Prior knowledge:
Blueprint: E1 2-6, E2 12-17, E3 19-27, E4 31-37, E5 45-49, E6 52-56, E7 70-78, E8 82-87, E9 91-98, E10 101-105, E11 110-115, E12 119-123, E13 128-133, E14 137-141, E15 146-151, E16 155-159, E17 164-169, E18 173-177, E19 182-187, E20 191-195, E21 200-205, E22 208-214, E23 219-224, E24 229-235, E25 240-242, E26 257-263, E27 268-273
Parallel strand pairs: 2-6, 2-8, 3-7, 3-9, 8-10, 9-11, 10-12, 11-13, 12-14, 13-15, 14-16, 15-17, 16-18, 17-19, 18-20, 19-21, 20-22, 21-23, 22-26, 23-27, 24-26, 25-27
Antiparallel strand pairs: 1-4, 4-7, 5-6
Amino acid sequence: MNRSFETHRPVHLLVEIGRGRVQVSARDTTESTVEVTGQHSDDVRVELDGERLSVVGPRLRTGFFGGDADLDVTVVVPTGSQLDARTGSADITASGSWGSSQLKSGSGQVAVETVDGAAVLETGSGDIRAGRIHEEVRVKSGSGDVVLEHVGASAVVATGSGDVQIVRACGPTVVKTGSGDLRVATADGDVSMATGSGDTVVQRLNRGRFSLKGSSGDVAVGVPAGVPVWTDISSLTGRVRSDLVGAGKPAAGQEHLELRARTVTGDITLRQLDEVTKG
């Protein structure tokens, strides 16, 4: 089944299916196109109402949004369109640049390239990956891994057992997991982390406060040379190591860091970084 619509402005795209695959793309175009293949594809509702483009699978008695039948959905819409995609177990892949977006799947994987607005990304057991999120993002996964390459504002991430990696966090960041490893490559704002048994790493904390509550995982934080640091760290049975060189009290208006970390058995390491590593 193929449909096309003339759309000279960004649309609000809604996609709801059960199993299969969802591939959506935001491009510089004045025409939105929808292609659906698979069993019951002719029963999928596709309609444009004003600026709302809906692609909704049939709700059969055997299951959610199409039952056990796989549907492959491919959609192209104008750049800057909003996205609301919900699936049972289908993977969701969103390429291009989107406005505010929500991508939710029961057990499928979720991937989005760029979101210029706020984003909500959720999955029960699939992995989540995002390129650039320019505003705030909320992420939730039961057992999948999470990778965020660049977050321009606040980030709240929670997983049951999946690992979390953030390459660049520009705003306040809160990350919680039951047993996954947590890693932030570069943080430009406050970072709060909590994990039951995973390791925690902030490779470079440029400013703000770092706090960690952990049980058995190790902790490592990198601090730029010359930045004043206040610390409150302890481990019940683990080792605490630091090669930080004292920079004295911060001058009025000078950037400084506050580091708080508590673990039961994990080691805690504070590393001083050379300025050439600044990223």
